[in-house]
Structures
1.
Amino acid sequence: MNDTGNQARFAQGQDADKPLTRIQKLNRSKILEAALEVFSAHGFRGSTLDQIASEAGLSKPNLLYYFPSKEAIHAELMAGLLDIWLAPLRAMKPDGEPRAEIMSYMRRKLEMSREMPRESRLFANEMLQGAPRMEDELGHDLKTLVDANAQVIRGWIDAGKLAPVDPHHLIFSIWALTQHYADFEVQVRAVLGPDTDPFEGAGQFLDMLFGRLLAP
Amino acid sequence: MNDTGNQARFAQGQDADKPLTRIQKLNRSKILEAALEVFSAHGFRGSTLDQIASEAGLSKPNLLYYFPSKEAIHAELMAGLLDIWLAPLRAMKPDGEPRAEIMSYMRRKLEMSREMPRESRLFANEMLQGAPRMEDELGHDLKTLVDANAQVIRGWIDAGKLAPVDPHHLIFSIWALTQHYADFEVQVRAVLGPDTDPFEGAGQFLDMLFGRLLAP
DNA sequence: GTTCACTCTGACCGACTGGTCAAATCGCTA
DNA sequence: TAGCGATTTGACCAGTCGGTCAGAGTGAAC
């Protein structure tokens, strides 16, 4: 709001525009990596700048040299997250083979739960709290994208290439089933025991589940 | 540890044993209700005693007259939660009709997501953080109960009354699909729009999904 | 209506948290 | 290698948080 004032000087080198220095790139990415680790494990309010700073190997004032506030770090993390998260959905091709498209969407999503459990939990944390920091993107970007894909799926069903299932709930079911293995990992591991790889069994089970569900 | 000392006097009337007074019963339940509301929405660290006190219509010191600490309130809430949460699983009858038993377990679980979304989110919050406050119950009570039911399901499959699916992942899928509608309610509503009841469509969709999955 | 345990509260405390700042240090370039 | 902006830090601050405490208020049994 004001910048005539006193503290408006959290320089990031990018006062004017873009040219990030080597050190800036390095430290910003260190901070975001550390923030992902901490935020995903403890939620926004449950995380402290000291934790993030320590995880990143920097001092707290140094964090605040690169980001103006705790909120800003979290926001930057969130900004990219929804895109990453929805990328597999964007990759679904309307002119592909319907069952294959949906199956491979599901598999990509499961793979993301395996490879990026922290991102999954960060996202889940935000949803659980009612998504106070991404309402806009949710109501617009997300809905638009999902509706578009739901239309495509509906087309497939009308053409008789897919069992008649509600497209929205089909998409929800893919989200729920794949993200569960990242978000509730402790629970899954507690049940399966420490020597079982949850994702192995999950892959086979979900193949069978969606195979049977989608048969026309 | 010590009780000779100074502060060992957070009387609750139940110093000796049981007899809770009328006021105690009332206020303890007010506090637990308020704590459920607040903890489920903001997580443990994200919630403050002031929020809970205000929600309960009591003063903060008065909260601490009934419970020795914030932790204790949360613990009391958690204590009952796992039992409530697993009750439907306990209700599954080994000598019932296999598909009907599983379908009605699923429906009961979905009903719980509809009727007790706060409990669901409280549970989800705890899982996301790695369940630091209920590791014991998870590793023992939960595993035992789930394994028992998995055995029953395996028996049904061996008897040819059920499609051959991994029992553990079948149970996980029921958890994931039903709890998703409570835990990610904002997301679901953002996609479906404000005028649609998510649980209506969910009920139909899940009936079809598990119907197709379990056909022998 | 006195009594005594139960209930409640305002004032307070030490620890922690997000954030600031002046000054020190670093590292690139001319 | 001198200079100057980029980077880093110790000390500090105001607000919040969980929790304590001495004492005031309350209600039911006698």
2.
Amino acid sequence: MKEQQLNKILTKAQDICNHSGGRLTTKRKGILELMLLSNVPLSAYEITDKYNKSTDSSMAAMSVYRILDFLETEQLVHKLSSTNKYVACSHIACSHSHEIPQFLICGKCQSVKEIAIAKRIADELEQEVANAGYKLVNSQLELQCICEKCS
Amino acid sequence: MKEQQLNKILTKAQDICNHSGGRLTTKRKGILELMLLSNVPLSAYEITDKYNKSTDSSMAAMSVYRILDFLETEQLVHKLSSTNKYVACSHIACSHSHEIPQFLICGKCQSVKEIAIAKRIADELEQEVANAGYKLVNSQLELQCICEKCS
DNA sequence: AATCTTGCTGATATATCATATCATTGCTGT
DNA sequence: ACAGCAATGATATGATATATCAGCAAGATT
Ligand SMILES: [Zn+2]
Ligand SMILES: [Zn+2]
Ligand SMILES: [Zn+2]
Ligand SMILES: [Zn+2]
């Protein structure tokens, strides 16, 4: 990722937080940056290690969890519940509003692609769920895939 | 669940294991039965506790994990990776072959419904994934829902 | 500026989920 | 009975996540 692009994203993230009243502190920004620069999702403890090595600090995992909670609330990062890892949102600098994301997770290289599936498919899925007597409240999908490079 | 129905399922489970060469031992059967009788998914440790209380034994969680691995391989139970819990398959006694399951998980009462979505939707989803340059390898979905009772 | 309030972080403990490894037991076919 | 293999026991450790209370720092109120 280019320096310029990263800065653009971080600036936009700052805007988002300002708008919501949250504070993108130095530590929170540092964690977000680190996640943006990673090409695979990271566990909270991996994030902790990376952060501490990169800054010669010693933040406890507890703090990282709290920061991840915050960033998740701001939709700047997402949690992948199938792998218990966390990934920076791919659409921070986009102007469109954030839809419910779907994730394509490569089983070989662990890379993740965040997409938004066609509304038609989401609707059909919701209908299917309704047929089963349930009401869909969150259609975040985590799909086990193989990426182009690895296939 | 009626006694008779339970026995039918356990007999079918026995058949499935015989056919695959696996052994449905007393302990494995006990774990499966316990899971069939639960109306919510259980964690490995919850299963361990329930089993030990119900039989006055003291199986270690390690053994339960191994047994769950076995039962999963035989497709008699499924793991819900979004909650780290395990649930008995709803289609053990069915004659049809086991498709890739999808799970509707109620966020209030934790009840789970195992369904198989229309092939058309699965195909469309796969196409969507292909458009993104990925190849879908497993379309097990875990959908956050509200069930009829809770809504 | 001093104080207040709120939200952020530190620090520690503990709960929860999962795997590694080696020893022991018990079927199963010869 | 014996050998071989599958299942279980036993113990240790690793990985993920939450609870709780104390200290601190930034923005708001006086
Ligand atoms: Zn996103
Ligand atoms: Zn890949
Ligand atoms: Zn099933
Ligand atoms: Zn419910």
